[in-house]
Specification:
It contains eleven helices and 15 strands. It has about 375 residues and is an alpha+beta fold. Among the domains are: about 60 residues, DnaJ domain (Helix Hairpins, Orthogonal Bundle); about 70 residues, HSP40/DNAj peptide-binding domain (Sandwich), CATH 2.60.260.20; about 70 residues, Sandwich (HSP40/DNAj peptide-binding domain), CATH 2.60.260.20; about 40 residues, no CATH class. The strands form six sheets. Strands 10-11-15-14 form a four-stranded mixed β-sheet. A three-stranded mixed β-sheet has the order 1-9-8. A two-stranded antiparallel ribbon has the order 2-7. Helix 2 runs antiparallel to helix 4. The radius of gyration is 32 Å and the shape is elongated. It starts with 5 loop residues before the first helix and ends with a helix. Keywords: Chaperone, Cytoplasm, DNA replication, Metal-binding, Repeat, Stress response, Zinc, Zinc-finger.
């Protein structure tokens, strides 16, 4: 099945910046994360597709390769940019034209670099903001210890293939044409193992679950990646190992919503405090703080607490906490309390007297009256 365009997967334009791509990814990742899709295989595949698109479009080299060559430029099976395939674009086209016209490059066989791995790490908002050191367990392929990754039994070593003389390819001439193909004796490795290692059976790699300690810097957010160089799969025949990418996903918080370095929260405000003013305790990630409420505060007003947001993992700048107050209408009133409210209502008067106490209400109805007057004229 053909792959969808990565820009289409994330719902962004081809010229989208990194910030726009990250924002689109965060929205989709939260919607389709496996924790929310309850084992739905189709949605899990969609999440993987989103992850793959994000990884390519936020990597400068991979994105450039994708923009120029499409999916072929980042296909790990073709050695695309940024993956552990070990080939470059010259190799991609050389394989095609060299085979047909006998390019005669005599390309040496190269052991394939180990594949890159990804580990999805879930964190709370508090952990992401403060940073922490975590231990993760990663199943992978590691270099076989008895043979030191060579694949040959201890005391012996791989021999140069007598068929291709170490090139990994053989050339067959058919009249005018010369066709190159993978060496049938060594399967393209350029070497043969006559006495394979008993542990790895000549593969040079064995399966193992590694336990790694990862330091997560303070300020990370969903979509951020920590690269652990050389902690991916071991390469073939002693080739370099791939990298391990720890992909961060921050769980939703019960109180705070994060946007970049700023935090947002809604704080309920009593009817009387909104009218008369006073002090209100609001939560922050460092504990409670007192917020001074001025008299006649309306619902929806935003209060900014500077420096109470998140410290940027890149610039070190600290964001703010923005608290939106929501005036709460009293409920479960007693008869006496209802009488007091009616008395308050009567004390405010009617007409112009009431307007000075409820200017928004008066302005709204004046606007409604003008709207209908205009319709009838």
């Amino acid at each position: 099945m053909s792959k969808r365009d990565y820009y289409e997967v994330l719902g962004v334009d081809k010229g989208a910046g990194e910030r726009e791509i990250k924002k689109a990814y965060k929205k989709l990742a939260m919607k389709y994360h496996p924790d929310r899709t309850q084992g739905d295989k189709a949605l899990e595949e969609k999440f993987k597709e989103i992850q793959e698109a994000y990884e390519v479009l936020t990597d400068t080299q991979k994105r450039a390769a994708y923009d120029q060559y499409g999916h072929a430029g980042v296909d790990p099976n073709r050695g695309g940019a940024g993956f552990g395939g070990g080939a470059d674009f010259g190799d991609i086209f050389g394989d095609v034209f060299g085979d047909i016209f006998g390019g005669g490059r005599g390309r040496q066989s190269r052991a394939r670099q180990g594949a890159d791995l990804r580990y999805n790490l879930e964190m709370t908002l508090e952990e992401a903001v403060r940073g922490k050191e975590v231990e993760i367990r990663v199943p992978t392929l590691v270099a076989c210890e008895p043979c030191n990754g060579s694949g040959a039994k201890k005391g012996s070593s791989p021999k140069t293939c007598p068929t291709c003389h170490g090139n990994g390819q053989v050339q067959m001439r058919q009249g005018f044409f010369a066709v190159q193909q993978t060496c049938p004796t060594c399967s393209g490795r350029g070497k043969i193992i006559s006495d394979p290692c008993n542990e790895c059976h000549g593969q040079g790699r064995t399966e193992k679950t590694k336990t790694l300690s990862v330091k997560i810097p303070a300020g990370v957010d969903t979509g951020d990646r920590i690269r652990l160089s050389g902690e991916g799969e071991a390469g073939e025949s002693g080739a370099p190992a791939g990298d391990l990418y720890v992909q961060v996903h921050v769980r939703d918080h019960d109180i705070f919503t994060r946007d970049g370095n700023n935090l947002y929260c809604e704080v309920p405000l009593s009817f009387t405090t909104a009218a008369l003013g006073g002090e209100l305790q609001v939560p922050t990630l460092d504990g409670k703080v007192k917020l001074k409420i001025s008299p006649e505060t309306q619902t929806g007003r935003m209060f900014r607490l500077r420096g109470k947001g998140v410290k940027s993992v890149r610039s070190g700048a600290i964001g703010d906490l923005l608290c939106k107050v929501v005036v709460e209408t009293p409920v479960n009133l007693s008869s006496k309390q209802k009488d007091l409210l009616r008395e308050l209502e009567e004390s405010m008067g009617k007409g112009s007297d009431a307007a000075k106490h409820r200017p928004k209400e008066q302005g709204f109805f004046d606007g409604v009256k003008k709207f209908f007057d205009d319709l009838t004229n």
